[in-house]
């Protein structure tokens, strides 16, 4: 885990309380970017519909199933919505029913079915063990299949701390302890670390994600660290971690190291 933050103690906590009371809701994270368009298409591009047409799709970390349902509505043969939280799967099932795609959607907390396409949207900055998730994906995708991943903002983005980014980069300036103490004023789940907050926060960076992918027997077909639009001109190898708004990539399985001939 990344140790960041140097403003702590009572001082840090009180500054956060003050900043929290005067915080302006950040439009980048309120979902408004997708209000009148498909989130899936915005993040993965229009080519995604062709990639999943007639295919069996696994929506990894599906949440309440909004994307799962859209996959089914827009051409997937069958979609499995997978999430570790049973409480989000019931609304997902009801949503599929209402949308008339219940016959093509399954929502579950576990699967061992091999699929043609795996999609993970906004999960990789939350999964407690992202390397294990990639290994699971590697096992579940068919040899000629594809994995599409998009997540963001990554940890060093101005709002990479999600709720903890009371103002840009606040999650890097304040100690974890001060941030968690401030959060416990209005959340009662007893979290004492970033990784324990509801939904989890694993401090994923662009570089760490890329390293994990390389370790997990995937070939990288496409990899993009898309910069924050307004800071696009500042984006280069040195600033990339700080100005990347989201990561998106397309992976294909390659034979495991042990299976490759020398
Ligand atoms: C931020 S939500 C994203 C939900 C949805 N993909 C979306 O874009 O709206 C991340 C989801 O991943 C789920 N999740 C976390 N760890 C998981 C795991 N190991 N396996 C499956 N789902 C997981 C969480 O429960 C949560 O619903």
UniProtKB/TrEMBL annotation:
Gene Ontology terms for molecular function: methyltransferase activity
Keyword annotations of the record: Methyltransferase, S-adenosyl-L-methionine, Transferase
Domain of life: Bacteria
Swiss-Prot/TrEMBL GO biological process terms: methylation
Gene3D superfamilies, per the entry: Vaccinia Virus protein VP39
Family annotation (CDD domains): AdoMet_MTases
InterPro entries listed in its UniProt record: SAM-dependent_MTases_sf (IPR029063)
Pfam assignment, any one: Methyltransf_23
Protein name in UniProt: Methyltransferase domain-containing protein
Protein source organism: Candidatus Segetimicrobium genomatis
């Amino acid at each position: 885990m990344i140790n960041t933050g140097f403003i702590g103690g009572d001082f840090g906590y009180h500054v956060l309380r003050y900043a929290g009371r005067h915080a302006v809701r950040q439009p980048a994270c309120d979902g408004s970017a997708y209000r009148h368009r498909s989130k899936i298409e915005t993040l993965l591009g229009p080519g995604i519909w062709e990639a999943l047409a007639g295919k069996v799709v696994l929506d990894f970390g599906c949440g309440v199933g909004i994307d799962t349902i859209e996959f089914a509505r827009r051409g997937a043969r069958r979609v499995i919505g997978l999430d570790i939280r049973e409480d989000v799967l019931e609304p997902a099932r009801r949503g599929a029913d209402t949308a008339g795609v219940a016959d093509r959607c399954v929502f579950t907390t576990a699967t061992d079915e091999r699929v043609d396409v795996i999609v993970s949207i906004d999960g990789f900055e939350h999964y407690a063990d992202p390397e294990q998730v990639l290994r699971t994906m590697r096992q579940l995708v068919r040899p000629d299949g594809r994995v599409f991943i998009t997540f963001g903002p990554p940890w060093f983005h101005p709002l990479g701390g999600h709720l903890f980014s009371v103002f840009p980069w606040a999650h890097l300036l304040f100690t974890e302890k001060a941030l968690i103490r401030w959060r416990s004023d209005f959340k009662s789940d007893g979290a004492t670390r970033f990784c324990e907050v509801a939904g989890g926060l694993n401090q994923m960076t662009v570089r760490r994600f890329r390293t994990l992918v390389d370790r997990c027997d995937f070939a990288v077909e496409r990899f993009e660290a898309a910069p924050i639009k307004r800071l696009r001109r500042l984006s280069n190898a040195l600033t990339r971690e700080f100005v990347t708004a989201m990561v998106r990539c397309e992976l294909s399985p390659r034979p495991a190291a042990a299976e490759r001939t020398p």
